[in-house]
p48 (Mycoplasmopsis bovis), 407 residues
Amino acid sequence: TLSHIVSRKGLKLRDGLTVDNAPRAAFITDEGSVHDESFNQSGWEAVHKISYELGLDKAQVSGNKNLRNKVYEPKKGELASSYKNAIDSSFRYIVLCGFTHKAALYGLEPEYIKKIKDNNIVFITVDFDIQQDASTGEPAAKAFVDKIGQGRLIPVIFDTKQAAYIAGRALADYFSKIYKDNPEKRTIGAFGGIPWPAVSDFIAGTFQGIIDWNKEHPEAKTKSLNNTIELKTSFTSGEPVAVAAINSVIKATASYPVAGSLSFDTAKEIKKLGDKNKFIIGVDADQKNALKGHRIFTSVMKLIGQAVYNVLADLYSQGENSLSLQPGFEIGKKNGEAKVFGYGENEASKYVGVATSGLLDSKNDEIANKALEEATKYYESKKAEIQKTLSGQLEEAKKALGTKWPD
């Protein structure tokens, strides 16, 4: 398996549910493969794991044959058909991974909106929050929420700043040891696909970790290659703005692309340089899996498997009106208060984290992993203080920029 998921002790179907009448769960990919070694695979492994632990399915490596809870792998343009198929096949807990689902979901016909209500269907939306979009006035989101009503959506949104902070502090620590006498090599270059918290939080958290390290170790500072960070590269390979951003950041020792598949493009360009000191920092999942043969200091991860597992565990064992991760939720009646999935107090509630080093050199990996361990300990020992700093970054930035703050 790809994802490490901590099982819930004593997990069992709630009173009144049996293997025969328990709600069925479906996982629908975002037009990608369920074996993508990333989000889709992690999410499906969570659905399949809990199905096995509750006795709803037998464990199997791949395929849907004889499974009660299933996976859909729609091709491009087939998302809406997948939803309809799942709804018509009596799946009640439908897990959607990735914001690419939004447009297709909004376009569901009235007859399927009615089926969603009549059959008490719940959508677990991973990495996107339709309710939040609706509250900010996004017309399509608001129209969809108005149609389906309350108590139909369980958003899973990650606080990546917390894990990113650990990565940033660890990077600065690593540089201080590897490049003690070479300050010009203690550099990071970052860019993002869109100016949105799901992207910028990775960068903001990492830079805060570096800033705090620099304050404590002024003799061994790590610096950003650029004074400003490009946040509008999009996620498409070959776009001029993306090419320019990649060519800029690879001048640094550490490249930090937060723009989907542009991580692959950045890693390839670094390899072309032939400089064995340079590397990338990955995002979303442990990119050692997808970028074999490329140097990766760490990856700031969203632990999707654990999040999906815990939401489904609540639904199956505690009840559809008793979600610890969304207090006040009542199916078909109330949305409740959606919780952010962050760096929890124990392994079962850690929804973000950092991956072990993959620098393709045992000595450097040892130093990097030690730095990651120390940064994790530091974060955990000062968690409340650091979280306060991270949550106040936006206001601090506005204060610092004054009239230069963009409207």
Summary: The mean pLDDT is 93. DSSP finds 14 helices and twelve strands in the chain.
